[in-house]
User: Which sequence fits this backbone?
C-alpha cells in the first residue's frame, strides 16, 4: 500500500467512525446548552472545555464529522445521479439533445464556482438541502462532460454494437453496459474533488449560508467562536484543525488514486 | 490575430445569453415570492390586494418569455432593479462596493504569481531535494487550508501577539497584507504544483536534450527553452485563479471586515435582497468572462499554434 493512502486512511478512518457512531461515542450531548458551564477550561469531564453556551467542545467536534462527511456524500450522490443521466443521454442520443446539454454546461462553467453557489443559495434560501443543491449544481457540468466523453468513446466498441444488434433497448444498454464502465471514472474525479467540497460546505456554513445553528458543523463553530477570538482562541482553533485534517486526508487520498491510475504522472513524479 | 479575436468574441454572445437565461430561470423559480419579499422589506402588510398590485407593478403577471425579454432589455441598459433594502439602483450599490473587491483580488493575483512561480521553478530544479520537499509540503497544506481558519490564525499571530498588523478594515498598505495572503494562499498552492509539473515535463523535451548536447549552460537552457514553454499553461490557469480569488474574496472580506462587494452580498442574501444578489452574480461573472477573454488573447499572442486555430 502506498504511503499517501496510508496516512489518508489513518486520518479518515477515525473521522468516519465519529461520523457513524457519534450519537453513541460523544461524552456529552453536543447541543445541550448550560450557561452555568460556559468557557470551562479543559478537565476530565470536558477534555477540550466548553464553548460560549456551555456545550462540550469535544462532543461538538465529533458530531461535526457526521454533518461534514454526510453533506459531502449527499453532494456526490446528487452530482453522480445528475451527471450520469445527463451525460449518457447527451452522449448516447447525440444530435439536438447533445448540443442542448453541452450548451447548458458551457454556460454553467462560465460562472466562478463560489459566485454561482452564492447566487443559488441567495435565491433558494439557506439550509442543508439548498447547500447540497447549490454545491452539486456548481460541479455537475464538469462531471456531465466527463460522462459524455466516455460514452462517446465506448459507443463504437464491439460489445456495445453487439448489444445493439441483438436488439436490446436503449435503456438496457445504457444501464447494463455504459454505467458500470463509467462509474469508476466518475468516482475517481469525485475523490479528487471531495477536499474542495468539504471546504465549500464549511465556508458557506461559516458565512451563515449553509448548515444553521445549533448544529455542530465545523465551519459554523468557527463563525460562532469569532466573537471570542481574543479571550478563547482555542474555540476557533479546534474546528479549523478538523476541517484542515479532513480536507488534507481527502486530498491525499485523491492524489494517491490519481498516481495509481495515471502512470504518466507517476513517472514525472508530480 | 484579428480573426482570432473576432472568433473569440462571437463565442461570447451565446455564452452571455446562456448565463442570462440561467440567472433569470433560477430567479423566477425561487421559493420566495418576489412580491412578498418586496412588501416585507418595505414594511407594508402583505394583504391580498397589495400583493396583487405589487405583482402588477413588478411585472410578475406577464408570460415568462415576455418577462425575460423585458428583464434582458432593461438589464442591457444597466437597469437591474432597485435594492429592496436601500431603494437605490442595485447596479450603483454593487459598483460602489466593487473597487475594494477588485483591489483585493488584483493584489492576491499578484501575490500568487510572485510567490508561486519562483517556488515552483525551484521545486522542479531541485527535484527530490530539500527545496522540493519543503515547497511540496507548503503547496499541499495550502490546498487543504480553509481560508477562514487561516485568516483567524494570522490575526491571532500578527495582530494579537506581535501587534504589528491591523486585524480588520481597509486603509493603507498594511491593511492589505493579511487579507491578500489569506486570499491567495490556496491559489499559490495550486499554482506551485502546476509550475513544478509543467517545468518537469518540459525539462525532458527533445529541444532541451538537443540544447544540452550543444553544450549550452544550464541556466540558459532553463531560461530560454524550459521556462518559455513551461509558463504557457500557467498563463492559461491564471484566469481560473482569478475566478477562484474573486469568489474567495467573499469569505475573506467577511473575516477582515473588508468593505467589498462580497461582504455586501452576504448581507443581501440574509435580507432576501434579490435585485442585489442578481446584480452581484451578473457583474462578477461578466468580469470573469472578460478576464478569460483577455488571457485567451494573451495566450494567442504568445503561442502561434492557438492563434492559427490548431488545438481548438
Assistant:
Amino acid at each position: 500500500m502506498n504511503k499517501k493512502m496510508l496516512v489518508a486512511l489513518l486520518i479518515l478512518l477515525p473521522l468516519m467512525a465519529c461520523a457513524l457512531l457519534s450519537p453513541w461515542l460523544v461524552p456529552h450531548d453536543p447541543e445541550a446548552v448550560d450557561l452555568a458551564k460556559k468557557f470551562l477550561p479543559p478537565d476530565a469531564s470536558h477534555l477540550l472545555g466548553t464553548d460560549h453556551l456551555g456545550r462540550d467542545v469535544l462532543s461538538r467536534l465529533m458530531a461535526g464529522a457526521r454533518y461534514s462527511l454526510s453533506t459531502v456524500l449527499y453532494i456526490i450522490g446528487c452530482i453522480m445521479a445528475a451527471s450520469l443521466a445527463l451525460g449518457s443521454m447527451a452522449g448516447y442520443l447525440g444530435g439536438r439533445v447533445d448540443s442542448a446539454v453541452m450548451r447548458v454546461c458551457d454556460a454553467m462553467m462560465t460562472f466562478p464556482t463560489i459566485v454561482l453557489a452564492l447566487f443559488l443559495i441567495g435565491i433558494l434560501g439557506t439550509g442543508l438541502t439548498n447547500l447540497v443543491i447549490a454545491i452539486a449544481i456548481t460541479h455537475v457540468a464538469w462531471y456531465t462532460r466527463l460522462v459524455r466523453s466516455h460514452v462517446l468513446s465506448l459507443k463504437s466498441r464491439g460489445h456495445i454494437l453487439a448489444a445493439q444488434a441483438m436488439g436490446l433497448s436503449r435503456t438496457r444498454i445504457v444501464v447494463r453496459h455504459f454505467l458500470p464502465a463509467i462509474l469508476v471514472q466518475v468516482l475517481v474525479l469525485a475523490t479528487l474533488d471531495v477536499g474542495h467540497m468539504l471546504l465549500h460546505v464549511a465556508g458557506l456554513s461559516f458565512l451563515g449560508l449553509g448548515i444553521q445553528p445549533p448544529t455542530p458543523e465545523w465551519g459554523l463553530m468557527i463563525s460562532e467562536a469569532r466573537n471570542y477570538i481574543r479571550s478563547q482562541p482555542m474555540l476557533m482553533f479546534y474546528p479549523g484543525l478538523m476541517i484542515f485534517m479532513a480536507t488534507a486526508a481527502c486530498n491525499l487520498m485523491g492524489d494517491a488514486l490519481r498516481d495509481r491510475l495515471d502512470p504518466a504522472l507517476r513517472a514525472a513524479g508530480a | 490575430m484579428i480573426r482570432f479575436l473576432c472568433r473569440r468574441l462571437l463565442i461570447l454572445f451565446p455564452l452571455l445569453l446562456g448565463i442570462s437565461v440561467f440567472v433569470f430561470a433560477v430567479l423566477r423559480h425561487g421559493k420566495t415570492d418576489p412580491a412578498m419579499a418586496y412588501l416585507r422589506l418595505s414594511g407594508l402588510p402583505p394583504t391580498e390586494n397589495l400583493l396583487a398590485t405589487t405583482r402588477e407593478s413588478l411585472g410578475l403577471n406577464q408570460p415568462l418569455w415576455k418577462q425575460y425579454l423585458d428583464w434582458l432589455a432593461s438589464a442591457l441598459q444597466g437597469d437591474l432593479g432597485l435594492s429592496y433594502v436601500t431603494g437605490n439602483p442595485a447596479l450603483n450599490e454593487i459598483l460602489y462596493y466593487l473597487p475594494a473587491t477588485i483591489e483585493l483580488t488584483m493584489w492576491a493575483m499578484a501575490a500568487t504569481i510572485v510567490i508561486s512561480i519562483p517556488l515552483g521553478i525551484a521545486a522542479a530544479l531541485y527535484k527530490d531535494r530539500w527545496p522540493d520537499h519543503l515547497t511540496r509540503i507548503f503547496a499541499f497544506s495550502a490546498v487543504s487550508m480553509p481560508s477562514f481558519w487561516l485568516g483567524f490564525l494570522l490575526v491571532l499571530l500578527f495582530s494579537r501577539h506581535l501587534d504589528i498588523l491591523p486585524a480588520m478594515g481597509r486603509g493603507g498598505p498594511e491593511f492589505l497584507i493579511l487579507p491578500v495572503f489569506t486570499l491567495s494562499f490556496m491559489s499559490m498552492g495550486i499554482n506551485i504544483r502546476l509550475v513544478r509539473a509543467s517545468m518537469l515535463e518540459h525539462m525532458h523535451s527533445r529541444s532541451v536534450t538537443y540544447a544540452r548536447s550543444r553544450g549550452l549552460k544550464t541556466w540558459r537552457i532553463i531560461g530560454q527553452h524550459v521556462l518559455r514553454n513551461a509558463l504557457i499553461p500557467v498563463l492559461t490557469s491564471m484566469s481560473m485563479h482569478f475566478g477562484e480569488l474573486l469568489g474567495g474574496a467573499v469569505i475573506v472580506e467577511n473575516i477582515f471586515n473588508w468593505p467589498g462587494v462580497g461582504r455586501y452580498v452576504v448581507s443581501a442574501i440574509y435580507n432576501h435582497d434579490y435585485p442585489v444578489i442578481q446584480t452581484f452574480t451578473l457583474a462578477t461573472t461578466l468580469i470573469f468572462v472578460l478576464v478569460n477573454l483577455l488571457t485567451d488573447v494573451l495566450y494567442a499572442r504568445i503561442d502561434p499554434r492557438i492563434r492559427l486555430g490548431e488545438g481548438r
